[in-house]
Amino acid sequence: MVMNPLASRLLQDGLDMHRRGAVADAAARYSQILKFEPKNVDALCLLGLACGELKRFAEAVDLLRKAVKQAPKHAPAHNLLGSALKEIGRNEEALASFNRAISHQPDLMEAYVNRAELLMALNRWAETVETYDRALAVRPNFFQGWCNRGVALERMGRLEEAIASYDRALALRADLTAAHANRGNALAALGRHQAAVDSFDRALATQPDFPEVHLNRGNSLTRLGRHEQALASYDRALAISPDMAEAEFGRGIVFRDQTRFEDAVRGFDRAIELNRNDAVRGLFHSHRAEALNLLGRFQEAFADVSRCLEVAPNDDEALYAVSLIELLHGRWREAWPRYERRIALKIGIPEGFSPPPWPPWRGEPLQDELLVLRGEQGLGDHLLFSCFGAHLAKLGYRIALWTKPSLEPLLRTVPGVERVVSDIAALEGTSDLRWTSMMSVPGILGVTPETVPRNGPFLAAEPDRVAAWRQRLGSHGFKIGIAWQNAGASHLDKLRSAPLREFAALSDIAGVRLISLQKGRGVEEIQAVGFGERLETLGDSFDAGGGAFLDTAAVMMNLDLIVTPCNAIAHLAGALGRPTFVALMHVPEWRWLLDRDDSPWYPATRLFRQSRAGDWPGVFARIADAVRARTAQAN
């Protein structure tokens, strides 16, 4: 169709106005054309485009429908129609229009981009990736496409592929801020925090005032334990965006990790004040509750627990944090269901772990099935919760324990247990298997502090090792085995550990022999204490074999007492039924509960608690008095 001269002139005038940004004037010119050429496809498309830019989307849809009716294979018209339909929320029709545009013109990049952006907005990530793949086949140097493809892959959890996609974008455009920033996020999600920080730094080199990148950089620095640098990143984020609740929350986390709990509470207060998202606010309340709990401000902590449950009834991280507080306070019935949220959060679960291909056990009676209890979290938890292997065996269940390789020899001594494995491949060929996590068993059974199974000692030392250590240690003196450091490195692990110097009060008691059970971190303190020469160490061969704690267990059977803070040594001594004094921080780990000097888990264990935060001297003065009383009885 040949356009008449007037229409041609009006169209050119409209295009010139459109390019200058005079969209309303351009629309008027296109409208004039349609008065005498109502089927003019170019005018219909351009007026539809202008109406979209003027937010007159319904009018745009009407015009563009007329355009594609006149020219059914006009790919740009279908693309424009899709964009207008998207703006009024008619997403499936919009996708159909983009599809038609692509089918009529397979190299129309705008249609691929519009389709992908709509799919991203709909969280349809696999289709987004497929669309970008098709677009990149047409234009391989489309750097923004590689970047956006990475975002979709990241949302699907395909993090390594996402990083590769960001790398392709950066190879094409090295200063693409979004690619550096998103690459950092993917690396952080993989736990590669130093590499994440490096990517965030490159993003900030191109765009220094990007508050979200400063925030995420602070989060990775926090995970790396570089607390002052993390605070600087959060402060920079807040300088740019003063209402960024997440940065205030990050500051609270750093203060918590530094055991500055009052400052942590203030940081969480500010985060809660700024934030209006219920799910995130629930998380903030749960962390403030933790900090208040550690300060001993229990009533306030439970007020936060209530707020958390009100605003975030289904948030895994918040509910898990709440469960730890409830467990500490003995509210086990309420806590156990929420404690299961740890599984979704992968708390203590090795990277790459997949549930076994057997039906889960939820407490139902079993006949000949073998019930596999999977150990989790730290060594102490494997030791403590193996008591449920003995308990369930006593109830008539066939039990296998699935544990760390180093613990296999020791856990084979749990009474009634048929198998102990560190690799489930060892159970191949075994029929009728069921499984659950070891730390889920008390919740399944509805255990409370009053109903913890009391089956006596549930671990045992090897008799030959016991005899060998008896000969080596001799029978003289009141032998006390001591440990002082927790093996972990978190803020709570540091608080749970007692400095070796505090044991000086025991070293001065007549007739007492102090024997070190400490391995690894903390051994260096021996050289720094005045009684170091009197502290007996057990040599480099002590527990140097493949089996964890085999020598430690044998030594414990030859000791009169074990004194230790909260660590795996405390749980091993308790499981062996040995007399044990456990020195606890003011607000301890939940397994020790509050306001009691005994343990529901270990009848032979006595608890000595700080009367106020950090008061180790007071704890060890009371322990020394109790040791004197024991030595007097022994004499």
Structure description:
The chain is an alpha/beta fold and 635 residues long. Among the domains are: 370-445; 463-634, Glycogen Phosphorylase B (Rossmann fold, 3-Layer(aba) Sandwich), CATH 3.40.50.2000. Helices cover 56% and strands 7% of the residues. It is built from 31 helices and 9 strands. The strands form 2 sheets. A 5-stranded parallel beta sheet has the order 6-5-7-8-9, with helices on both faces. Strands 3-2-1-4 form a 4-stranded parallel beta sheet. Helix 30 (568-575) links the parallel strand 7 (561-565) and strand 8. Helix 10 runs antiparallel to helix 11, helix 11 packs parallel to helix 13 (211-223) and helix 17 (278-294) packs parallel to helix 19 (316-328).
CATH architecture of the domain at 463-634: 3-Layer(aba) Sandwich
Morphology call: elongated
The separation of the N and C termini measures 117 Å
Radius of gyration from the CA trace? 33 Å
Spatial ordering of strands, largest sheet: 6-5-7-8-9
Helix content: 55-70%
CATH T-level fold name of the domain at 463-634: Rossmann fold
User: On the 0-100 scale, what is the average pLDDT?
Assistant: 92
Please identify the structural class as seen in this structure: alpha/beta
Count every helix, treating DSSP H or I runs of 4 or more residues as helices: 31
Strand-residue fraction?
Answer: 5-15%
**Contiguous uncertain segments of 5+ residues:** none
Largest sheet: 5 strands, parallel
How many beta strands in the DSSP annotation? 9
CATH class category name of the domain at 463-634: Alpha Beta
CATH fourth-tier homologous superfamily of the domain at 463-634? Glycogen Phosphorylase B
